[in-house]
Design a protein that fits this description.
alpha/beta; four-stranded mixed sheet; 14 strands
């Protein structure tokens, strides 16, 4: 069998089983669209159930239209047929992340998880050594390639032992987060540990907008100088109904967009941000249109 990373449905998955229509919503800004879908299904005579992380901060959004919450086995497959979870939860407790509140700050291990090429666990390196070994062993035994550890590893808990364990099966990029200046020494240590890994396989998610402009740009440039590939994510409010970044400090909405386009379009390979011109529609590097590519963001749990 040929395995791939599959394709992520854009935020909302819907399906029908018998007399019930299911809607799984990954992001809060898809709630208005999902509400219209729920009304349509109800008008067709279906019972309607809505789940996903989006409803966690909007528990009453579908009152009178649909039943919300509960659980649905392997719901992530409805968003990407090649995705799976081996654990839920995360002990870190980042203020901008919904996972600790929704799934808990202790891990729930799914020992008999379905092995698929895209592993979406929230924090692989913080899992116990025994359970990490269990996951790696399951991939080896089933002969399913790990093409993407989608949400990645925590720099503070990533060490040589973790690296040696996962390098045996990880065929995709090494993903880490660089959320604030406090993460700097840990990310630098990880980059040194991965010095022989190609730049394209060292993907560092850099949160922007949560610190002043200069601080965020410093983190982006540090990732580049350490031989990594930055991918920025503007900070969002957990209950945002519009897909607009949270504007704080000395940022503007336009500046957040500009930095994201410059960084995530790989324009940094050609020019520094100070020379970036948002009116230029294309920048060609190595005969490639840098704005033609997109990177899939990791999704958190689809249902509680």
């Amino acid at each position: 069998m040929k395995y791939t990373k599959g394709e992520w449905i854009k935020g909302v998955s819907e399906w029908v089983e018998d007399d019930t229509a299911f809607i799984s919503v990954a992001f809060t800004w898809f709630l208005p669209k999902s509400y219209s879908k729920a009304i349509w299904y109800k008008a067709q005579g279906f019972k309607v159930r809505v789940g996903g992380p989006a409803i966690f901060t909007h528990k009453n959004y579908f009152d009178g239209v649909a039943k919300t919450g509960g659980s649905y086995p392997d719901a992530v497959k409805k968003h990407n047929p090649m995705a799976t979870f081996a654990s839920r939860g995360c002990p870190v407790g980042c203020w901008f992340c919904i996972v600790p509140a929704m799934e808990g700050r202790t891990f729930t291990e799914i020992e008999n998880f379905i092995v698929r090429p895209v592993l979406c666990d929230n924090n692989l390196s913080a899992l116990s050594s025994d359970y990490q070994n269990h996951i790696v062993s399951r991939y080896k035994k089933t002969d399913v390639p790990l093409l993407d550890a989608n949400s990645g590893f925590e720099p503070r808990t990533f060490d040589e032992e973790v690296y040696k364990r996962w390098e045996k099966i990880n065929k995709g990029p090494w993903r880490f987060a660089y959320d604030d200046q406090g993460d700097g020494p840990h990310v630098e240590r990880v980059m040194k540990m991965l010095k022989n890994v190609p730049r394209s396989k060292k993907r560092v998610y850099v949160l922007i907008g949560n610190e002043p402009f200069e601080s965020c740009m410093d983190r982006i440039y540090r990732v580049i100088s350490w031989g990594g590939e930055p991918y920025v994510q503007p900070v969002m409010k957990l209950n945002a109904l519009d897909k607009k970044p949270w504007v704080r400090y000395d940022w503007t909405a336009q500046c957040l967009k500009d930095v994201a386009r410059w960084c995530n379009g790989w324009v940094w390979r050609k020019i520094p941000f100070a020379e970036y011109n948002r009116n230029i529609k294309k920048i060609i590097v190595n005969n490639k249109d840098l704005f033609s590519k997109e990177d899939a963001n990791g999704l958190s749990s689809m249902w509680r």
